[in-house]
């Protein structure tokens, strides 16, 4: 194997672990590399010139997964002269020089605060034939000023802040992402408008703690105002946000959600534990009564709201009574979904040295009981929607069995996953030609919508079956609306939001100048 031929661009691949923030950071990494002249490797090609690992450090298995994958890449790199491996993200910020000690074939290590340095570090490592490690202790450039290669034509992540001012005893994120830094509202709205100008229908506002947004410039109501401002952007059909913190959740945000038509009635609000004693040990600064009170207010304002959460089982010192209180809160809250985790000891966090670390078998048994309780509730909540009409934003990769079942998949406005048929299935299980096209659908050879619905289009359909984690709609769609996001998906075009790069090296042939666009080009 050889490197890219002389004069041809070097190829890259980004592998992402972790949360939505990491996914969005990977979009920025891709944008940086492409502006520097790299080209994303074709899916069928498993030998890129540059592999970038964007890592998570929240759970112990993230370490094992990274070093396992680095080990698998070593012989590939030995057979591929000139190949480079870079490790960034939270685990790189935490482990720093240890990465090179454990995997000396890595070329670049960069942290959470200096994503923008990656092209320079790659070129410097290549020129000097030596590894480069650069970890900054504080934010150098706000990441959203960097160029971004968006993965979706229809939905976009928009960071409103980075870092976190909380001190949860189980969480290493504040140590790796730093103190909260807020973007100015005008910059955020400019980025949202730029995405909408490219056809994006849905944005998710991102932050480690979105509803503390504004703390840096002294406006505790800034997040609610930001939601209302998003409601004034023409063409923006859905607004989501993640994740809020119960201690900062205020009534004005509930009002903004209920009164702004394009803000979805879905709320992801981490619980972590239903036990007040465990919450105190976690340093979560709210108690179960306050948490349930917020949910009650949300449902009073938005009876159709779907509420999801995060729960940790087996925190140090958790008793059976503590765990039972968590189950009680789960039953009372009636979550539509829950991300459940077994406590994972993370070096550098206060919880790692606490007394009362629980045996693995105790944690596993409680975890299984929690899963059973959550699924019982989510299934019951989903069954209530059978017979209801839902609006689905058609997505890519949500339904792993879609090709076999003849369905497509997407998300309802409340965030639930919906698998839907594009017509009526015949006796052989194949879709017939009796689907109903909406007023905005393009005419086809037959009535069925099969083959004419694209990712990014909007479909209205009726729920016919409910499972704990998804809904099925196996009848005829009620309508289909073609969108600019669907046009972009059909054309294979993904949104790009360019930033400002000064003096960064480029690789290979220079990129073609972008076509003129409307809206804000820099954010």
Task: Describe what you observe in this structure.
- The protein is of the alpha/beta class and 523 residues long.
- Helices cover 31% and strands 18% of the residues.
- The chain has 15 helices and 23 strands.
- It has helices at residues 20-35, 60-78, 90-95, 98-102, 118-128, 173-177, 185-197, 222-230, 251-259, 276-282, 288-301, 320-333, 360-383, 402-405, 484-491, and strands spanning 11-16, 39-40, 50-55, 84-89, 108-110, 132-134, 148-149, 155-159, 161-162, 181-182, 202-206, 238-242, 266-268, 306-313, 337-342, 389-394, 407-412, 417-421, 458-462, 465-466, 471-473, 479-481, 496-497.
- Strands 20-21-18-17-16-19-22 form a 7-stranded mixed sheet.
Largest sheet: 7 strands, mixed
Amino- and carboxy-terminal Cα gap? 40 Å
Shape: globular
- Which class best fits the helix and strand makeup? alpha/beta
Helix content: 25-40%
How many beta-strand runs?
Answer: 23
**What is the overall pLDDT average?**
84
Low-pLDDT stretches: 424-447, 500-523
Task: Give the radius of gyration.
Answer: 24 Å
**Beta strand %:** 15-25%
How are the strands ordered across the major sheet? Answer: 20-21-18-17-16-19-22
* Continuous helix count: 15
């Amino acid at each position: 194997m050889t490197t890219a031929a002389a004069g041809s661009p070097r190829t890259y691949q980004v592998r992402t672990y972790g949360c939505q923030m990491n996914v969005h950071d990977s979009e920025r990494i891709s944008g940086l590399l492409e502006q520097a002249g790299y080209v994303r490797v074709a899916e069928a090609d498993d030998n890129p010139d540059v592999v970038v690992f964007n890592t998570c450090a929240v759970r112990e298995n993230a370490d094992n997964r990274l070093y396992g994958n680095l080990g698998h890449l070593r012989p590939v790199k030995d057979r591929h002269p000139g190949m480079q491996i870079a490790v960034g993200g939270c685990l790189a910020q935490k482990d720093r020089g240890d990465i090179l000690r454990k995997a000396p074939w890595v070329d670049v290590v960069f942290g959470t605060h200096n994503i923008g340095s990656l092209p320079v570090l790659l070129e410097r490592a290549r020129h000097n034939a030596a590894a480069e490690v650069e970890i900054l202790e504080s934010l150098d450039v706000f990441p959203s000023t960097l160029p971004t290669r968006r993965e979706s034509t229809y939905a976009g992540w928009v960071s409103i802040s980075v870092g976190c001012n909380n001190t949860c005893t189980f969480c290493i994120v504040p140590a790796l992402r730093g103190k909260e830094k807020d973007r100015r509202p005008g910059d955020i709205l400019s980025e949202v408008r730029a995405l909408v100008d490219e056809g994006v229908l849905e944005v998710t506002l991102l932050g480690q703690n979105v509803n503390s947004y504004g703390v840096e410039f002294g406006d505790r109501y800034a997040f609610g105002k930001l939601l209302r401002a998003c409601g004034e952007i023409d063409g923006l059909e859905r607004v989501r946000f993640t994740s809020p913190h119960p201690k900062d959740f205020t009534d004005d945000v509930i009002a903004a959600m209920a009164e702004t038509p394009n803000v979805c009635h879905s709320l992801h609000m981490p619980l972590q534990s239903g036990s007040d004693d465990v919450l105190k040990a976690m340093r979560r600064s709210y108690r179960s009564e306050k948490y349930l009170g917020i949910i009650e207010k949300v449902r009073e304002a938005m009876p159709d709201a779907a509420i999801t959460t995060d729960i940790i089982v087996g925190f140090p010192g958790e008793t059976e009574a503590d765990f039972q209180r968590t189950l009680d809160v789960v039953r009372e809250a009636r979550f539509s979904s829950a991300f459940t985790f077994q406590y994972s000891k993370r070096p550098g966090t206060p919880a790692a040295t606490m007394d009362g670390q629980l045996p693995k078998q105790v944690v596993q048994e409680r975890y299984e009981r929690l899963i059973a309780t959550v699924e019982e509730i989510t299934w019951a909540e989903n069954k209530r929607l059978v017979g209801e009409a839902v609006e689905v934003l058609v997505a890519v990769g949500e339904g792993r069995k879609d090709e076999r079942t003849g369905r497509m998949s997407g998300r309802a406005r409340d965030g639930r996953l919906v698998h839907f048929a594009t017509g009526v299935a015949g006796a052989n299980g194949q879709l017939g030609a009796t689907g109903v096209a909406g007023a905005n659908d393009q005419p086809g050879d037959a009535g069925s919508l099969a083959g004419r619905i694209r990712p990014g289009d909007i479909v209205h359909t009726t729920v016919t079956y409910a499972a704990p984690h998804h809904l099925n709609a196996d009848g005829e769609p009620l309508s289909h609306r073609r969108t600019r996001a669907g046009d972009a998906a059909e054309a294979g075009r993904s949104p790009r939001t360019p930033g400002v790069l000064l003096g960064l090296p480029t690789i290979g042939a220079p990129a073609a100048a972008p076509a003129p666009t409307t809206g804000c080009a820099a954010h």
